[in-house]
Amino acid sequence: MSEAAENTELGYEQARDQLVEVVRELEAGGLSLEQSLTLWEKGEHLAKVCERHLEGARERIEAALKSVEDDTEDAE
């Protein structure tokens, strides 16, 4: 399984933690250009995984709020 395929299966917290580690490594410096680019690409992918999780959570919250609003309107 490729690293990209593995990352898409990560939970939000796992992806976030890995992203934090990528940022730490990049900020620490001392890497070759190729290593930095590889880490940057990994970070971009992890950020997208996090964004997908957050968007899914946002949709679930909006659906739950709409359901509550609909129930409230039906009760009136």
Uncertain spans: none
The major beta sheet can be summarized as: none
DSSP strand tally = 0
Written as H for each helix and E for each strand, in order along the chain, the element string is HHH
Number of helices: 3
Terminal CA distance reads 54 Å
Structural class estimated from helices and strands:
mainly alpha
Architecture, according to CATH? Answer: Orthogonal Bundle
Mean pLDDT: 89
Radius of gyration: 19 Å
State the domain count: 1
Helix content: over 70%
Overall shape: it is rod-shaped
Which CATH class?
Mainly Alpha
The multimeric state of the shown protein is: single chain
- Say what the CATH topology is: Helix Hairpins
Family: Belongs to the XseB family.
EC number: 3.1.11.6
Subcellular location: Cytoplasm
Main location: cytoplasm
